[in-house]
Amino acid sequence: MAARSPSTTRLAFVAAATTAARAAKAALEQRYGTVPPAEADVIVALGGDGLMLQALHRNMRRKTPIFGMNLGTVGFLLNQYRASGLPARIRNARSVTLTPLSMVATDARGKRHEAKAINEVSLLRSSRQTARIAVAIDGTTRISDLYCDGAIVATPAGSTAYNLSAHGPILPLGAGLLALTPINAFRPRRWRGALLPRRSKVEFTILDSRKRPVAAAADSVEIPNVVKVVVTEATDIELTLLFDPEHDLEERILKEQFAP
Fold this sequence. Notes:
disordered N terminus; 5 helices; six-stranded antiparallel sheet; 260 residues; alpha+beta; single chain
């Protein structure tokens, strides 16, 4: 391990399970030194977007900034990988603050499940039959019977992921909005979703849940056979990502709106 002066930023490295990510982690630890994530000033995540989401979830309560370097496929939430000049890149990085969603899901047995989502909370039908879902916003029913394959509530950071694939809108980081997007809505036939204030409380009630079962997922945490799902913004949690100035997340989200 490299020697560290008192003024040096303490770095913790986390890596995906791939050979390339593990090799990079070993080389960077040798070059810059390392501490456990609980003692770090900055966590360096090496992998793809899945690894970045995992790192954010594992360090959600520590509020430790995370600087990601892409050794995966898309790497939307990460910077380019370069082994050299890492401390300077971190010093000069721009910070982006993300607020996750809080999901409270009640299953068919009456058990409550709580989970956080950085990208989105999604509801998905679990059988060959279309799901039927009632949708309420802040206590007011807006759709009494949505026939669909599912529905998504996405944050601005997650609006370019599953939400975009389901033809939902891309949200700038500072928009103060959430995207409510149906997945293959059959009835109401022309409903394409809604833009909601970030403080909204979104409540899904699963209709005919025995015949038409639905699963709920908060990022990678999935709860089967839900009967009710409530989604709000987790206002008590702030996550900090660090980006090279030329790789700023807000600019990348803006560019996605003009991608061919």
